[in-house]
Amino acid sequence: MKKILFVPAAALALFLASCGGGSESTEATAPATEAPAATTDAATPGSDIPGIADVPVTDHIELTGNDQMQFDKNLFKVKAGQEVKLTLKNIGTLPAAAMSHNVVILLPGTDVQKFGEAAVTAKDSEHIPQDMLADVAAHTKMLGPGESDTITFKLDEPGVYDFICTFPGHFGTMRGKIVAE
Ligand SMILES: [Cu+2]
Question: How far apart are the CA of 175 and the centre of ligand 1, in A?
């Protein structure tokens, strides 16, 4: 330390810069570089979701909705920032007024219960509450029997995105998760 006090500022800067790979510097930064790596592992989005380890990364999600108010799948994994195609088909036969389906993908942290309840009264906008669009990552059209819709979207941030059908009464059973990693 004492030696450094006598070195001119420019030389000191050079000295410090060139010291980046020095042994002293390595000792100081090594624990710091290990810590973030460990934290990242523990915080892998959705790593606590049962079965997620067996779900392959996809860029084409295919879903059906039926007259029993069920999606055929409820867990997907995509790459954050990558374009993803999603196709929903309503394979039911009940009239549209009684049994329609959509897929609404919500941003991480959205209150699913609150959104689903607000959607009930949003009849004029295919049950997408217009004052909550900021919570919506992407959504399909509302589909009657035999209809299908394909959308393309990107989930920009890694995280867990809930998806639901917002037809009144459906989001309790018609819901799932897309993990963007
Ligand atoms: Cu539905």
Answer: 9
Tell me the pLDDT tens digit for each residue of 55-106. Answer: 999 999 999 999 999 999 999 999 999 999 999 999 999 999 999 999 999 9
Q: What range defines the domain where residue 13 resides?
A: 3-42
**Cα dihedral 36, 157, 69, 72 sign:** negative
Amino acid residing at 102: N
Do residues 116 and 164 touch, judged by C-beta distance below 8 A?
A: yes
Distance 77 CA to ligand 1 centre (A): 22
What whole-number distance in Å separates Cα of residue 172 and Cα of residue 164? 8
Which one, of 121, 167, 164, 113, lies nearest residue 144 by Cα? Answer: 167
Q: Are 81 and 8 contained in the same domain?
A: no
Q: Do residue 148 and residue 166 come from a single domain?
A: yes
CA of 155 to the centre of ligand 1 (A): 22
- Ligand 1 (ion): which residues have CB within 5 A? 101, 165, 167, 170, 174
